[in-house]
Design goal:
This protein has about 160 residues and is an alpha/beta fold. The chain contains 7 helices and 4 strands; from the N terminus they run βααβααααβαβ.
Length: about 160
């Protein structure tokens, strides 16, 4: 039996490598991400995209290197025409604002490559309960199933 396919959005390697936050909720989310990574990741076939690679490479060189190291060995999905079509639709329909075009691209790549899950802490533009039905409809309009969008806390296997 094959493992469920999971797209790792940029916040996951970011939470894994960032300095522990003084904000208690953020620190708890960082710890949950680390726990998921160390104890549950092996239950999934994990993927990233060039969008993730580009995003993790930005910023402070030491932290960027640490984020890149987390991606070592993970398959990189292409930003193909189908992914671009969904990305454009999400932006054109105003579901995702233009300033967050990379977030639309994450959704486009994950759906176009038939990922079972999209793992993220981005609860503004991706894992947002006020947007999810619109995201699902946009996916269906271009012929894709929307992956299950969730945080590591929601994806812990007992």
């Amino acid at each position: 039996m094959s493992l469920p396919r999971l797209y790792l959005e940029t916040t996951i390697p970011s939470y894994l490598t960032a300095r522990r936050s003084r904000d208690l909720q953020l620190a708890a989310d960082q710890q949950t991400t680390e726990d998921w990574w160390n104890q549950h990741r092996q239950h999934y076939e994990c993927f990233v995209s060039p969008v993730v690679v580009d995003e993790v490479a930005r910023g402070d060189a030491a932290f960027a290197a640490a984020r890149m190291a987390k991606l070592t060995g993970l398959p990189v999905l292409s930003v193909n025409d189908a992914a671009q079509e969904l990305t454009v639709r999400l932006l054109a329909d105003g579901i995702i604002p233009a300033i967050a075009a990379d977030d639309a691209a994450h959704l486009g790549v994950a759906a176009a490559h038939a990922m079972d899950f999209l793992l993220t802490w981005n609860c503004k533009h991706i894992n947002n309960p006020h947007l999810i039905r619109r995201i699902e409809r946009a996916c269906a309009t271009v012929g894709f199933a929307c992956p299950i969008i969730c945080t590591p806390a929601e994806l812990m296997i007992p």
